[in-house]
Design goal:
- The chain has 12 helices and 8 strands.
- The protein is α/β, with parallel strands linked by helices.
- Strands 1-2-3-4-5-6-7-8 form an 8-stranded parallel β-barrel, surrounded by 5 helices.
- Helix 5 packs parallel to helix 6.
């Protein structure tokens, strides 16, 4: 069994709050337990890139979750900017295709070399956890099964040089088996036993998600909306440890 510190390092807290003051307050409360935080669309649109530099002052790791998806040149340009802010991880939508992925990886690596810093981990979004099989087929027009589609995208991500993917914990086991142990699987849709599922459809408990092959667990509302975020985080770590 991993010790509590190692277990806590597998949790990425989603800072889905309205402003930087609330974000900094959460990090202050949680930093003794959690060292990795996600900046999503809501917080980034509210604060702009200063939230990245502000969080880095706490000495924590930052996952920039903006799901870049555009023509290859635009996404490559965005990747260079993300690198310049010193983020530790960012993501792109795999549905943008091979050229977009390859150009993004190349741009991020070149920018990192120019700045003399480590290249951020780049992970590709497969199928959003709000989707189910029916949504995928009827709305996205994808006729293969959901798990086959996730695996198809994961294989493309690996071939194009990405560090890993973002996928529901329900697909983690198959991806881990097919792609290998040195591939990052970031899993949203993680809910502890005592939390509501919210708008996520393909969910799993933290302990089970890690058993299925997840590398990192993205957890937001069960922690940030709890009366005591630190207590919630510690409770989740204890639940993972069994």
């Amino acid at each position: 069994m991993l010790d509590e510190q190692k277990l806590a390092e597998k949790i990425i807290v989603a800072l889905d709050v309205d402003n930087e003051e609330d974000a900094y307050m959460l990090v202050s409360q949680l930093s003794s337990t959690i060292t990795f935080y996600k900046i999503g669309l809501k917080l980034f649109v509210s604060c702009g890139p200063r939230i990245i530099t502000g969080l880095k002052k706490f000495g924590v790791r930052v996952f920039l979750d903006l799901k870049f998806h555009d023509i290859p040149n635009t996404v490559a340009s965005a990747a260079r900017v993300a690198v310049s802010y010193g983020v530790d991880m960012f993501n792109i939508h795999l549905s943008g295709g091979r050229e977009m992925i390859l150009r993004t990886v190349e741009a991020a690596e070149k920018k990192s070399v120019q700045m003399g810093i480590p290249c951020p981990q780049i992970v590709g979004v497969t199928v959003l956890t709000s989707f189910n099989q029916k949504n995928l087929q009827e709305e996205a027009g994808v006729q293969r099964s959901l798990i086959d589609h996730v695996l198809h995208l994961a294989q493309m991500a690996r071939e194009c040089g990405l560090n890993g993917i973002v996928a529901s914990p329900r697909e983690a086991q198959v991806v881990r088996k097919e792609i290998g142990d040195d591939f990052i699987i970031v899993t949203p849709g993680v809910r502890p036993l005592w939390a509501a599922s919210g708008d996520q459809q393909r969910i799993m408990t933290p302990r089970r998600a890690l058993q299925e092959g997840a590398s990192y667990l993205v957890i937001g509302r069960p922690i940030i909306e709890h009366p005591s975020p630190r207590e919630a985080a510690e409770k989740i770590v204890a639940e993972i440890g069994g």
